[in-house]
Structures are given as structure tokens and as C-alpha cells.
Amino acid sequence: AIGKVSKTLVWDRESAIGGTGKVTEPAQMFAGTLGTRIVLAPPRDPEFKGMTERNNGYFETSFLPGREFASPADFNSQLGLWLPKANARTVRSLHGRPIDFLDEDLAAMTGLPPVAPHVGLSSRVRLSRDYYVRVDGNDYSAHPSAIGRFVDVAASMDEVVISCQGQVIGAHSRCWDTARTITDDEHVAAAKVLRHDYAQAQKARYQAARRGKLVPVEPALVRDTASYDELFGVDFDPNPTTGHREVIAS
To answer: Are residues 104 and 10 in the same domain?
Structure first.
């Protein structure tokens, strides 16, 4: 929003950033794209980032009381409207108002990169028969036509998008609750049609079998067992000859 990047980012040792004491590879990529560095706070040392803790304490006592939030977006909207008032107050430790130091802070920061850093979660899974994918403890529906195929799942702060071979088969607003099931009514209707078509095909096959006229099916793929011999580098003679063993007694 301010168009600048801090030269240093201070973070707790949360698992996504540096739970093992070392900055994770995705976090390194994020910082590298922004042209900044990440400093991990020492374990069990809240004073290392005392300014952040004091800000959080101020938000808890001055912003949160008496408010209700319908969603994360609503929270951010209300916070954005409240911050100008908070930044215009006089802070004793600063001997002035935060807004008066903004220009000085911006001058000490670097500009934004031409390419935004990659953020969010991404994965590839095989779509199961229930046509849902799980993201951060919640299940999101996809179009059932992709059942059994690999799908790509991309989750940002606001949206979860499911695609198959470059085609979007599901898009939902991201849910920040847990153990929730988010369903698209179009996916439910499509699944109902597919189940009906499958039942009709099975019924037609059963009726044809009773009349002695089996419906032709595609031949199943059969692998030549000799390919396994070639894979493991062995050669078994299919027509071995019976030999005689000579025993020499002394």
C-alpha cells in the first residue's frame, strides 16, 4: 500500500518461516524477490520484537473492544479506517505522532520489485470420487468430470482455485474457519447427472447380458510379463533342457 519495502523483516520462528531455526526456502524466495532479509527472533524472547508486541497490545485494547467482524476482509476494512486515527495520536516514546515520521521511514526503505513475490499455497493431487480437495483443514468442491485425474490447487489469501490441465474446474472464496465444506451447487448438479448416466449404462449392460448380447467394451491393457524380466536384467529360458548331474564318490 505504501509502495516501499523494509530492509529487514523480523519474524517469529513459526513453521512456515523458520520453525527449525533456519529460514525456509519459500520464505527465502519471498525475501529475495522483495530485496530484503529475514531475521528470526530468538526462541522465547518476546522482547526481541518489543515494538511489534506493544503495537499488538495497543490494537487489542483500543481497536478490538466492542467490534464485530464478518470476515477477514471486514476486519482489514475496519482496521484500515481506524489506522489514520491511531497514527494521528501522540506517542510518548516517539515524542510525536507516527504520521509525522512516515516520510523519514519511507526514505530509509527500498522500492517494490517489478515482479510480485509468489505467495499462497499450491499442490497437485488426484481428485477422489467425492470430488473435493482439502486446503488448510477445509474441503472445497471441484467439477466431478475430473475425478481420477490430477488437479492443481492454488490458494491465495482470498481464493482457492482448482484447475485440471490449465482449465479451471473450481473457484471458491477462501474460508478461514476450520473443518468446513465449501460446495459449488453446479458441481453437485453435475455429479448427479454423472451418477444417473453411470446407472443407466450399468442397467443397459445388465439387460444386454440377460439377452445374451453383451455390450462390447474396450480391451483391457495387458502387460507382457517378459517386460519385468527385461526391467530387472534377467533372462529365463522358457524351454529348459533336463540335464544330468554326475556324482563322484571318493
So the answer is: yes
Q: Note whether residue 154 is domain-resident.
A: yes
User: Are 37 and 27 a contacting pair, CB within 8 Å?
Assistant: no
- Residue 155: CB partners within 8 Å, gap ≥ 6? 120, 121, 122, 135, 136, 161, 174
In a domain, 229, yes or no: no
Range of the domain at 87: 4-111
Widest Cα–Cα separation across the chain: 111
Residues 125 and 188 in one domain: yes
The domain tally of the chain equals 2
pTM of the model as a whole:
0.68
Instruction: List per-residue pLDDT tens for the chain, 250 residues long.
Output: 789 999 999 998 988 899 999 999 999 999 999 999 999 999 888 789 888 888 899 999 999 999 999 888 899 999 999 999 999 999 888 899 999 999 999 999 999 999 989 888 899 999 999 999 999 999 999 999 999 999 999 999 889 999 999 999 999 999 988 999 999 999 999 999 999 999 999 898 888 888 876 556 666 566 666 766 676 666 666 565 555 455 454 4
